[in-house]
């Protein structure tokens, strides 16, 4: 499996654990005010990361491109900015909304990077600069 797929899958599992923890916290406290953050953690962190990992696993030539690692870094940076700020904003910190918006824009930019990867030609160079070879 390509390294980028492993990274996306491992990151997805971390977000799954965080999403479950957020859900349990809401259930135990009886305060479900952060359900949008819970949903974002699960859908963007767990599901979307796993889908990205699956795409790269099925397309090893594209997975070997440097831009795939850029996609991973930008996407996860955006999530790390957005998700905690969203969670805290929903728990009574409205001043965090600009941080949530900034993280959202970073995530959106990373999705455009992924779109470029998907729609670009199969021929690619690997991170080492040598032609990428499908496994």
Strand-helix topology:
Layout: H1 3-29, H2 35-58, H3 60-63, H4 66-90, H5 97-119
Helix pairs in contact: 1-2, 2-4, 4-5
Write a structural description.
By secondary structure, the chain is mainly alpha-helical. It has one domain (3-119). Helices cover 76% and strands 0% of the residues. The chain starts with a helix and ends in a 16-residue tail after the last helix. The mean pLDDT is 92. The chain crosses the membrane at residues 7-28, 40-58, 70-87, 99-121.
Uncertain parts: none
As a whole number of angstroms, the C-alpha radius of gyration is: 17 Å
Described by strand count, sense and barrel closure, the largest sheet is:
none
Helix content: over 70%
How many strands?
0
Please give the oligomerization state of what you see.
single chain
SSE-based structural type: mainly alpha
N to C succession of SSEs: HHHHH
User: Between the first and last Cα atoms, what is the distance in angstroms?
Assistant: 8 Å
Count of helix runs: 5
């Amino acid at each position: 499996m390509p390294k980028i797929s492993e990274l996306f899958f491992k990151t997805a599992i971390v977000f799954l654990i965080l999403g479950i923890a957020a859900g349990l916290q809401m259930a135990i406290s009886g305060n479900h005010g952060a359900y949008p953050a819970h949903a974002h953690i699960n859908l963007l962190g767990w599901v979307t990361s796993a889908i990205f990992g699956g795409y790269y696993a099925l397309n090893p030539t594209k997975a070997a491109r440097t831009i795939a690692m850029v996609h991973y870094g930008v996407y996860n940076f955006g999530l790390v900015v957005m998700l905690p700020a969203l969670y805290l904003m929903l728990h009574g910190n409205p001043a965090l909304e600009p941080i949530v918006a900034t993280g959202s824009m970073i995530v959106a930019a990373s999705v455009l990077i992924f779109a470029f990867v998907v729609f670009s030609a199969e021929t690619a160079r690997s991170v080492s600069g040598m032609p990428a070879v499908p496994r």
